[in-house]
């Protein structure tokens, strides 16, 4: 059994991680910390976990995380970078679900996240935890930078096109739509039900923090700097990301075959039959990314549709997938949930 | 492995049954029928089941259900009563998720359901599948009448009060609220998104089909005819039932202890701490019924709050719970899903 | 033209008041204050008001409200009682949409609202602004205590039964459901979209602040203390209140006629045909209260269904209705909006 | 007073037209037809219209539409083309909210709509009712082809770029999102609440009927054939369209000024301040189209955000705007509703 600790389990990625780990056959959840809720039973904050988890939130200053085999950070940005060093040195493996170790260019990270990086030397050590790209490196990683929700859906969608070098890499467009849980469990006016329900809007069109992460990932694959227009939108649903991706084809090849082949052995990437339109609910509560490919009217624009559950494949599920890989377990263990539909 | 057949798997209880059975370690799904979708792959109709279920819908006239150990009917009312006899005679166990065998008084059933009963002689054989009441009989049942969604939430809520004989049994009130999936996957105007979203209404106040079912169940426990006012409402959510129950206390006893004791050994009934307000999402996708008890301002009105997922404990999950009992499996096997929150 | 000021226009009752007043032919909106947003254009906070309202929020300390003919308070509880005295003395009419002047028993108010009343002597002067009960007094009122959202729907629903003295007044039950805008435009976790969407729950079952207000109103009509069990619920919709009311009949009279007659001349109370089920969306954005009456199975329980838009008839619309009465205008002027459906 | 008839008033554009016309000071609604609901009171089908409209639906075969000054067709595609000829010849003005007269190329229309055109000779007579483009022609029109919902939002969004000839007209992209009312009030499974709620998906990516309409409109302005990729999505909200438009700039000019100038005198097009993100709810129930313009990271991709209420500016409101123009009334008369927020 893997002895697991969680730092900061009161947000949506935290509760989702708890949901998954509570059912994982090889995990023993040892400790979960929260500054604010220390002493409270986890299932008092999240009644969905009653009869499933009996732990209480621990005071971070008293929690002995060093005895864990693995610690997940489900914290706001800026926390993991403060605490990773000592765990890393103690040989505890780390999976950071926040953005602290995702961007290799520290100056770039500091620009987008508006703070100094507290632990730049570990950034180089961190492995970007997108298994479909980095599986081999993840196997031996000590520190995983778990990808963001948008970056997962967008990168998996563009990946085959970039690898095959068949699109204009200067003019990629990602029009993305997220459920409101992507904004986190923070008391804010703009995500109140009466503000976000029965409403649709874009946000951060001038620049969103996931832009440099996606560009880094796709540029690594392209082996040159790619150009991306990234427009996120807030959708009145709880979970789910739908990425609608546009690229100008420079060669004519069979896109359906390209995608089917690329992902044939990926347990969590599902290429739909030609002509399909994936729905976010078809992955709700599951670790799947479902993708469909189109070339409307047979023109030179490829339209790729990619859906994930932002809290699973876009956060907690992918983190557990990384854990499975790091600890030599079957990659799908404990994350084989069938999506909840309707 | 239990060889299982499903008749009519294209509705919401059908797809939920498939979600649960696809993950059940002791079930081998052999056949699923649908007159309308015969020949179509199950995962084409329900993409959430891709990579999970590879069966196709079979033509009912060609499906060999007699080779199954157990057949679930997830059909509209009026179908199971046509087909149950031959399966019953062939020694195939039956769990009927429709209403065909729930009401012992056949004339009463015919009045509420507006048709002649095709198989009245099997009504007497049928065991009402509410394990918290009938566990012993379910164990040896050949034919289970699986309870309706409202009746499950309402009966589990009232049960301890009735058993303890501490309320006026002539003046029970059940004000119930259901998610829209309770209306089924039928093309109808009144459950279209633009009709049902951002809207709340009652329906069937003069009389709803679940009224005789609830009255029968509670009267059996009370050993006399109870009086119930039952008002259902349609709520703009997908899943979930919230029953708000009112009863006039005739004796003063500690309700919290009464409920905690009654359900102490029930794996799926969760009595919340005093002062709680259960949320439907705290049971979403799970087989739990969560209950809280109140006596506002210390008066003589008991207010019982009972929530379930109408498709799980109110339908498919309870059906599998019954299956587990019938086949000598651990009662919770394959239905231990942690609720999906948020 | 009536010179109107608004104190505190940044909440949901505030923006609704602005929507209505912007279209009212006899109102000149002079000033709107907000401590927090002083200096900001109203239509920057609420883009729905672009091209409709050009005012900026004023600093409360600098706003000259004394030049107004009428001031609306759309503030949290506890603000109006601080400022009403000086306006009252200056001859400015006041309509308070908060709870400060609703409860005649100041000690009772202080118990439920958890603060000392700053202006108890004006409580006696305040007229409770439910036109269907107090129209004559409203005409000459200087200070209106505008009713709460639940109290409006519940009182209008019970009113004819109480006036006719045909129910057991000790055992009234009000099972009420509110849209989330009823919780206000405050940054709080429990009303975030991912918490409140696809979810249903009760709250404040042990006691809600609207309970004493409703009991006061109904007891005044009954001329004796009534007994009420009041259970509010939070519903995943933006606007709307649905009150399901239960009363035990002590006399057999034709309820449909009773209600139709009682409200025959009320412009905003609509008694639906026998057998109806009012929907909250049928009043969305309008000042209507629609009511249906039932006696399920011809028993002795009357079930009254009453729906309003909590922000209109339950707040801003009723406030403008009171304004119209106070200023001798046609009662329906400027609040004749047709409900928005779908 | 304009004597108005409506053919087919039982869908969402019909009820919205009724909502608007019921409050229009210069309209006398004479007749409304429905084959299916003939004889039923309009307010029985739509209780939101109680106390507002007392008409009954008339049998189409008995309705005397020739006495009207104006007839609106709020019918499914294929109906208006059957009945327009005789009304046209009788001198009755016609506004068709369906697609029958929108496409000048009849063969193209027949391809996309899958039927033969019953009245091709009137297609040439029809004026495309987008006032911001065709105001002068609308003034004297006898037959208006009222634009579709997507085409209105997309054309108003692209218009200034096309007119200014500053973008690559072969590579336009329109990623559009619609509320579910856009699918109409038809009993279908895929728009049921449990299917469409908490879910997001694209549809008709290979080709949607509004594509030729948008291409025709933009090509007319460009005076050459434009190239457009058009991807519609279904969003879990009732009303609203959000168009996210992408174009490659070929010249560097100040987009904000371009848009502000182009729409300075348009009463219903609102160009938001630089940096804005329009919300669909900011136009809910109103005839506004709100637009924001962006150039992310100062690159060569223009991102235009355009929102409308699909039932108002995208259907019934625009139809009444056209009526006002045709009958010499102030263009905004009766369609000045303030959006309903929240």
TrEMBL record, chains A, B, C, D:
Main location: cytoplasm
Active-site residues annotated for this sequence: 149
Keyword Oxidoreductase: yes
Biological processes, Gene Ontology terms: L-arginine biosynthetic process
GO cellular component terms, semicolon-separated: cytoplasm
Catalytic activity field: N-acetyl-L-glutamate 5-semialdehyde + phosphate + NADP(+) = N-acetyl-L-glutamyl 5-phosphate + NADPH + H(+)
An annotated Gene Ontology molecular function: NADP+ binding
PANTHER family referenced in this protein's UniProt entry, alphabetically: N-ACETYL-GAMMA-GLUTAMYL-PHOSPHATE REDUCTASE, CHLOROPLASTIC-RELATED, N-ACETYL-GAMMA-GLUTAMYL-PHOSPHATE REDUCTASE, CHLOROPLASTIC-RELATED-RELATED
Alphabetized HAMAP family for the sequence: ArgC_type1
Reported function: Catalyzes the NADPH-dependent reduction of N-acetyl-5-glutamyl phosphate to yield N-acetyl-L-glutamate 5-semialdehyde.
UniProt-recorded name of the protein: N-acetyl-gamma-glutamyl-phosphate reductase
Organism from which the protein derives: Nitrosomonas nitrosa
Gene (UniProt): argC
């Amino acid at each position: 059994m893997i002895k697991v600790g969680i730092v900061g389990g009161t947000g949506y990625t935290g509760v989702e991680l708890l949901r998954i780990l509570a059912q994982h056959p090889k995990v023993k959840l040892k400790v979960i910390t929260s500054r604010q809720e220390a002493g409270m039973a986890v299932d008092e904050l999240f009644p969905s976990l009653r009869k499933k988890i009996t732990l209480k939130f621990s005071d971070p200053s008293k929690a002995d995380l060093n005895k864990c085999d693995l610690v997940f950070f489900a914290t706001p940005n800026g926390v993991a970078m403060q605490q990773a060093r000592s765990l890393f040195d103690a040989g505890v493996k780390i999976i950071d679900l926040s953005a602290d170790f995702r961007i290799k260019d520290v100056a770039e990270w500091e620009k987008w996240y508006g703070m100094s990086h507290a632990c730049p030397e570990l950034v180089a050590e961190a492995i970007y935890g997108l298994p479909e790209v980095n599986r081999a490196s993840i196997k031996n990683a000590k520190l995983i930078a778990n990808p963001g929700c948008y970056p997962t859906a967008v990168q998996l969608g563009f990946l085959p096109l970039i690898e095959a070098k068949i699109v204009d890499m200067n003019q990629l467009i990602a029009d993305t739509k997220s459920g409101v849980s992507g904004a986190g469990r923070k008391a804010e006016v703009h995500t109140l039900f009466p503000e976000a329900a029965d409403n649709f809007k874009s946000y951060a069109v001038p620049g969103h923090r996931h832009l440099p992460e996606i560009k880094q990932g796709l540029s690594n694959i392209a082996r040159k700097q790619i150009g991306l227009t990234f427009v996120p939108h807030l959708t009145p649903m709880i979970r789910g990301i739908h990425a609608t991706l546009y690229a100008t084809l420079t060669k004519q090849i069979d896109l359906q075959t390209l995608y089917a082949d690329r992902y044939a052995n990926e347990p969590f990437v599902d290429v739909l039959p030609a002509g399909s339109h994936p729905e976010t609910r078809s992955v709700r509560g599951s670790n799947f990314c479902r993708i469909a490919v189109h070339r409307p009217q047979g023109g030179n624009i490829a339209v790729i549709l990619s859906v994930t559950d932002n809290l699973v494949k876009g956060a907690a599920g992918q983190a557990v997938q990384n854990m499975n890989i790091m600890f030599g377990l079957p990659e799908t263990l404990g994350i084989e949930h069938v999506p909840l539909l309707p």
